[in-house]
Amino acid sequence: MIQIFKEGETDRQTIFARKDPVDSVAAPVQAILADVKANGDAALKKYTKEFDGVDLTSIEVGMGAIDEGFRAADPGLVEILYRAADRIVAFHQRQVRNSFLINDEEGILMGQKILPLQRVGLYVPGGTAAYPSSVLMNCIPAKLAGVKEICMVTPPGKNGKIPPNILAAARICGVDRVFRVGGAQAVAALAYGTESVPKVDKIVGPGNQFVAEAKKQVFGQVGIDMVAGPSEILVIADGKCTPQIVAADLLSQAEHDPNASAVLVTDSQELALAVQAAIEEQIPKLLRKDIARASIDNNGKIILAQSLDTAVEISNEIAPEHLEVCVDQPFDVLSKITNAGSVFLGRNCPEALGDYFAGPNHTLPTSGTARFSSPLSVDDFVKKMQYTYYTKDALAKAQMSVSNFAKKEGLTGHARSIDIRFDPAVVGEEP
């Protein structure tokens, strides 16, 4: 049963604690990465047989198979995928940046170029659930950024094929190449390259703890979006909320993972008790009830705050991945929120809306990293290159300032690289 903690009566460590998985997977992941780096496709086939029970004859999914998957996908879902893609495009188009040039001083040009990454790897989870929504959320910003090639990796089913709904999403949003491999071995393939899988510049997309650890270990060889932890939801709710609805919203994340976190912060003891009871009533009705049960028992909590203002303070300190604000004037609360991945405002905006359809990205910072990081965006798929140009006259005006600055830092070589350009013994008497 989800526990209730009272602000002021419960120590802060208990209120703000996050329970992380206790089993480290660093060592086995390191071994898998090294194996794939050394043995390429052979290692990928070995691990796919071991972990997925599939003997791969080919690792890449041909375009014909992608088209076949699209045709086999649920037509109703395909229609929804198109509509969701339009909304995701509409939101992320606003994030596209432009290069700029500054020329407000004579003889000086400064600028910044926005350049798309050349090749990006997209990890799409498989296993207990396949998520076509993740394909849309990760691919569309990359396409808008101008990424030249998007390579998707995802575990095959027991039949050796990729679920049709995943392939349909890949085709709708423009994935260029698809590979039937998952887990840490797929991350290794994207990071190092194999005979079949090309090396990429950056790896994005959610996965289990093995995938997250693998992304962490290959960072530096390639870029990554983030090291994502278990899913989280925090609901700020006042006493006017319907307990059954709040309970359903909490369980929408609890069903993701036994390590997922569902937290309610409210100033109403009556609501707290009612939500506690509603959760117990709803869990047995879920298809993934065992997962939700473990999540609620291990990581769920209800925090009884002294006021809605302190509820917001508690939320800011927790810095949740998903934050629902279920109060009368949610925009008044929004102005006070500083740490959250994605915020859902009002009583009619469940977090699940953002997972699938609303438009803002659902790849979000977890584990409190919303204090310093952001949702996946077009910015994740570009790099910025700056440039500077000075004429001789412009450099002459800056010479003494730059040279003296360098000397104050003890870097006389830096100073000389400026001063030598004005040394008559080197350049003569010409200006």
Describe the protein.
The protein is α/β, with parallel strands linked by helices and 431 residues long. Helix content is 44%, strand content 17%. It has 18 helices and 15 strands. The strands form three sheets. Strands 1-12-11-10-13-14 form a six-stranded parallel sheet, sandwiched between helices. A six-stranded mixed sheet has the order 2-7-6-5-8-9, sandwiched between helices. It has a three-stranded antiparallel sheet with strand order 3-4-15. α9 (209-218) links the parallel β8 and β9. α5 (75-92) packs parallel to α7 and α16 (392-408) runs antiparallel to α17 (412-419). 43% of the residues are buried. The mean pLDDT is 94.
Task: Provide keyphrases for this structure.
single chain; 431 residues; alpha/beta; six-stranded mixed β-sheet
Task: Detail the topology: elements first, then pairings.
Layout: E1 3-6, H1 12-16, H2 26-39, H3 41-52, E2 60-61, H4 63-72, H5 75-92, E3 100-105, E4 108-116, E5 119-123, H6 132-145, E6 149-153, H7 164-173, E7 177-179, H8 183-192, E8 202-204, H9 209-218, E9 223-224, E10 232-237, H10 243-254, E11 261-266, H11 269-282, H12 289-299, E12 301-304, H13 308-318, E13 322-326, H14 330-334, E14 342-345, H15 351-356, E15 382-390, H16 392-408, H17 412-419, H18 424-427
Parallel strand pairs: 1-12, 5-6, 5-8, 6-7, 8-9, 10-11, 10-13, 11-12, 13-14
Antiparallel strand pairs: 2-7, 3-4, 4-15
Helix pairs in contact: 2-3, 2-8, 2-9, 4-7, 5-6, 5-7, 6-7, 8-9, 10-11, 16-17
